[in-house]
Design brief:
- The chain is mainly α.
- It contains 17 helices and no strands.
- Helix 4 (about 75-85) packs antiparallel against helix 8 (about 170-185) and helix 13 (about 275-295) runs antiparallel to helix 15 (about 315-325).
- The longest helix has 29 residues, at about 40-70.
- The radius of gyration is 20 Å and the shape is globular.
Length: about 400
């Protein structure tokens, strides 16, 4: 079995440190918005939707440009650098509109880095090990999230209203990630100027295969069921998990997610990615049903256990499939298109889910998402049976 390459290890550590920074913030940001800045559920939906849509619009542009200039590292450095610098500014916010602006800038950074980074992971791994490589990256990313969540929990245990202190301290791991990336990531220059080869240019300009576009379409539908983590956190807070304990529950989720990302990636290498993804869709349907029925704080732990399992599949397998089917010459562009379509769908998805919760109740919102997840499962099951 091939070893994980140097660059994938470095990208794993960069994601680890970046997610320490991010997840010091993200588990408590919805509570900060609701309890301190008095934002409504609809406003929170707007913030999360705009944030993800912003990232998505840039993912296709950065992916295209990365393929065009045959470079990955400059985009990755710029993207991680911007996010690391703007997130601590949340400590200075006094309105939800300011939070929206900072989340916008943070997601610009994510949009710059994601497609070139995923393409670099795929470029440096053979197809029979690609699920393992993406799984390793997701595992490191999520272990960083677990540590960041633990730090937030400890700070909030010390001082329940220490939101702004947590936001300010997030700059330390963020800057550390940039230093690792700048000095340790090694991008090999292209062996030849591929753009000058007419055969390669013609190949890259061909329409994407129908099965790849169909997969993207299914993932867009599924995005309306795969609601923002913010709503899961607000739900467990509503059923009895205190503000101080929310990061601990989120830590538990991230540990499950980290532990299973690489095994699920390796499983997809062995039995096929579509089979594993089907399992993820089924689990998401079950998870949303559970959230629609939850009324007691003990249920939060069980639900976030299944949330971790589901995320390990949903965040690993689709990008691996897209990488497999795209081909090297337009891999970053195709990954960018995938991330863009899914991310743009997250804007109306988050706003609609938040509006349903605000107008009716959380049970109605999660039930709506459950039916969409079940519909996505059926679409993927039918898609799997079509010859590629």
């Amino acid at each position: 079995m091939a070893k994980i390459s140097h660059n994938i290890k470095i990208l794993g550590w960069v994601s680890f440190l970046t997610d320490v920074s991010s997840e010091m913030i993200l588990p408590i940001l919805p509570l900060f918005l609701k309890n301190v800045l008095k934002a409504t559920m609809t406003s929170i939906g707007v913030i999360e939707g705009v944030a993800e849509a912003t990232a998505s619009l840039l993912k296709v542009a950065s992916g295209y440009w990365s393929d065009r200039v045959k470079k990955r590292k400059p985009f990755v450095v710029a993207g991680y650098g911007l996010s690391a610098l703007v997130k601590p500014l949340l400590a200075l916010t006094t309105t939800w509109g300011q939070v929206l602006g900072i989340r916008f800038a943070d997601r610009v950074g994510k949009g710059l880095r994601t497609s070139p980074r995923d393409a670099l992971i795929a470029d440096t791994s053979i197809i029979s090990q690609r699920g393992k490589s993406f799984g390793f990256h997701r595992a490191m990313d999520t272990l960083g999230a677990a540590l960041g969540t633990l730090i937030a929990f400890l700070l909030l245990t010390w001082e329940v209203e220490a939101y702004r202190l947590v936001f300010a301290l997030s700059i330390i791991p963020g800057i550390s990630a940039i230093l690792v990336l700048v000095f340790l990531l090694k991008e090999k220059p292209p062996e030849r100027q591929e753009g000058s080869d007419p055969a390669l240019t013609k190949k890259a300009s061909k329409p994407l295969p129908a099965h790849l576009l169909a997969l993207m379409g299914i993932m867009v539908v599924f995005t309306f069921a795969n609601v923002s983590y913010a709503f899961f956190i607000l739900k467990i807070n509503a059923i009895g998990i205190s503000v101080a304990l929310v990061p601990l529950v989120y830590l538990f989720y991230n540990l499950v997610y980290a532990a299973l990302s690489m095994p699920f990636g390796m499983l997809s290498d062995r039995i096929g990615r579509e089979r594993v993804l089907l399992g993820g869709f089924f689990l998401m349907t079950f998870l949303l049903w559970g959230f629609s029925k939850a009324t007691s704080s003990w249920q939060a732990w069980l639900l976030f256990f299944f949330y971790g399992i589901t995320s390990a599949i949903i965040e690993t397998i689709p990008r691996t499939l897209v990488s497999d089917w795209a081909g090297k010459d337009r891999r970053a562009s195709t990954l960018g298109l995938y991330h863009t379509l899914v991310g743009l769908a997250s804007l109306p998805a988050s706003i609609l889910f938040g509006a349903i919760w605000h107008t009716y109740n959380s049970a109605t919102a999660f039930t709506y998402a459950m039916f969409l997840s079940a519909f996505s499962f059926i679409l993927l099951l039918l898609f799997k049976r079509v010859p590629k």
